[in-house]
Write a structure and sequence with these properties.
- This protein is an alpha/beta fold and 262 residues long.
- The chain has two domains: 178 residues, Rossmann fold (3-Layer(aba) Sandwich); 72 residues, no CATH class.
- Helix 3 packs across helix 4 and helix 5 runs parallel beside helix 6.
- The longest helix has 18 residues.
- The protein is globular.
- It starts with 7 loop residues before the first strand and ends in a 15-residue tail after the last helix.
Length: 262
């Protein structure tokens, strides 16, 4: 068994994924450390979504190893993988809330599916989590269509946190949001990392967001990692592709503060 440091929550070693004759992920090595935020950036078709599905055990790689909490999940059975998946909380693009049910039932969904708790206890746990994310009881009976974009993100995050995951995975969390709301979502991601002690993995095309929140930035292109480091290391490092990608984003990186830590 490979000796994985306990601080390394998610580790990918030589991961490849092919669909037929098309190789989508090409020998990716990646480490996500406890309590840190890793942003995976890249253009359309870079392989970000495929990589995300491999990390959260929704798909298996063609070759390579994926360690979660020191265990290689690649050879695991479906029953074992279901246990692994509970270590991840997913915050989907546009929050992916169920429009036909209210906030209470949306946030309660993981508890209903995976626990045997009674309705009263589930309600209390939902209220507590919403309160921790600065949402009061008035939202419990609201439907997703009645919420602002920022509130939808908080509700989606509350749902993702209900099973106390070790890793929160955000799929394009600022997509479709205005700049002010996007920065509020950045603050929410960072405060959640600090408050709940989670490791964050963020799939994004938002370079400004990456500079706000990332401890580690990873640039994926055509299924390969071509640059990694802090966002500023990517912006000023040796990789011309990384420098061009960030420059072409149109973001004034020198005006963006880095993530607050401490």
């Amino acid at each position: 068994m490979t000796d994985i440091p306990t601080s390394d929550v998610v580790v990918l070693q030589g991961v490849r994924k092919s669909f037929g004759d098309t190789e989508v992920i090409r020998g990716v090595d990646l480490v996500c450390r406890h309590g840190e935020t890793t942003c995976i950036v890249g253009g359309s078709g870079a392989g970000k979504t495929t990589l995300l599905r491999l990390v959260v055990a929704l798909d298996k790689p063609t070759s390579g190893s994926i360690f979660v909490d020191g265990e290689d999940i690649v050879p695991m059975s479906e029953r074992q993988l279901n246990h692994v998946r509970r270590k991840f909380g997913m915050v989907y693009q546009y929050a992916a809330l169920l429009d036909s049910i209210d906030v209470l039932d949306n946030v309660a969904f993981p508890l209903v599916e995976h626990t045997k708790l009674g309705r009263a206890e589930i309600r209390e746990r939902v209220r507590d989590k919403l309160h921790q994310l600065d949402l009061d009881d008035s939202v419990l009976t609201k439907f997703p269509a009645e919420l602002s974009g920022g509130m939808r993100k908080r509700v989606g995050l509350a749902r993702a946190l209900m099973l106390d995951p070790k890793v929160i995975v955000y799929d394009e969390p600022t997509s479709g949001l205005d700049p002010i709301t996007s920065r509020a979502v950045d603050d929410l991601i960072d405060s959640t990392r600090a408050r709940f002690g989670v490791t964050s993995l963020v799939i994004t095309h938002d370079i400004a967001s990456c500079f706000h929140i990332a401890d580690q930035a990873v640039l994926l292109s055509k299924g390969e990692i071509i640059a990694r480091g802090s966002p500023r290391e990517l912006a000023h490092g040796d990789s011309e592709v990384a420098r061009d990608f960030i420059r072409n984003s149109g973001v004034d990186i020198d005006s963006i503060p880095g993530p607050a830590r401490g």
